[in-house]
Design goal:
2 copies of one chain form a homodimer.
Chain A lengths: L2 H14 L6 H12 L4 E2 H11 L5 H13 L3 E4 L7 E4 L7 E6 L5 E5 L2 H12 L2 E14 H6 L8
Parallel strand pairs in A: 4-6
Antiparallel strand pairs in A: 1-3, 2-3, 4-5
Helix pairs in contact in A: 2-3, 2-4, 3-4
The first copy, chain A, binds a DNA duplex through helix 2 and helix 4.
Chain lengths: 154, 154
DNA sequence: CTGCCTGCAAACTCTTTGCACGAAT
DNA sequence: ATTCGTGCAAAGAGTTTGCAGGCAG
């Protein structure tokens, strides 16, 4: 799906919820969809301000829940204090995260069995599953062997 | 394993690391092992102060990493702002958490396949797995049907 | 005695919120 | 014209840290 189609999806979600289409929300949308990988609220603020310098931190934090609720973004919490966000793929694939403890890079891996597991386990407890997260923390072999980590991005 | 044996395990871990056995650390240990379920740093502070009222919040936060590193406690992060802790079982079983979004209760479920998954996925990325977390968020059927949730504890 | 540990309080990080102004419908 | 959305700055929650004094080894 193109970014234009995504923008339309965002606009109609806003309309459907009775929310207004503001320049700030559109700037945040553009900034988010220019990112190819995970980003933080602060990074999104930087990028959005390059598009519309009136965007404030508060609006970033108020818009991120809207974008995750509309399934345009996924929230990725690796338990590091700050939350990460990422463009959602078109399919509703369940993704697991592999976090490199050396370079802090987050790899996303398809893990379709998670959904099955969530349902199985929840029903035994009298619960209805909403979501599931699987996260693997790991060390970089290259770093240990050569002393440097080519994945270092952050 | 008895709590006495656990306390010895704690003491020898401290000794091995060149750390001192203080009254505060022992009080925190006692307080933690009197808990049967998950607890927060703040709850641990309350309980530890009933044993030794000189225990401070700072020491709680300085001691929790020691107790998790020594494998006496497990850290459970459900992405709710505050971290939970729990006595570690004797076996090194991999546990998944099922979190009820209605009553905030955390259920622990054995999920041995997690370790296999972590290894498989890490090796493909040139990483060595350290740990894995699986968490299912779910809603309470009883609450939806009867309007109350018997699991409510927090 | 030496230096690790401690309590206290301030600092820190990320996120949320109250308020008055401004803009979308 | 309404009313929702916004920026600003302050507040909030949970956790960490600098410091001077205290206690374990």
């Amino acid at each position: 799906m193109s970014n234009d189609a995504k923008r339309d999806q965002f606009k109609s979600f806003l309309a459907k919820k009775g929310l207004r289409v503001t320049n700030q929300r559109l700037a945040i949308f553009e900034a988010a969809f220019a990112q190819k990988d995970h980003f933080t609220a602060e990074e999104l603020l930087d990028h959005a301000r390059r598009i519309d310098d009136s965007v404030s931190r508060a609006t970033i934090y108020r818009t991120l829940p809207i974008m995750t609720e509309s399934a345009l973004l996924r929230e990725v919490d690796i338990g590091s204090g700050e939350k990460f966000y990422r463009r959602n793929a078109d399919n509703n694939a369940q993704m697991a995260q592999v976090v490199c403890l050396d370079c802090d890079r987050i790899f996303e891996i398809s893990a379709p069995f998670m959904e099955w597991y969530g349902s199985t386990v929840s029903s035994k407890l009298g619960l209805t599953p909403v979501s599931q997260r699987l996260q693997v923390s790991a060390h970089c072999n290259l770093l240990r062997e050569t002393g440097s980590c080519k994945n270092k991005t952050r």
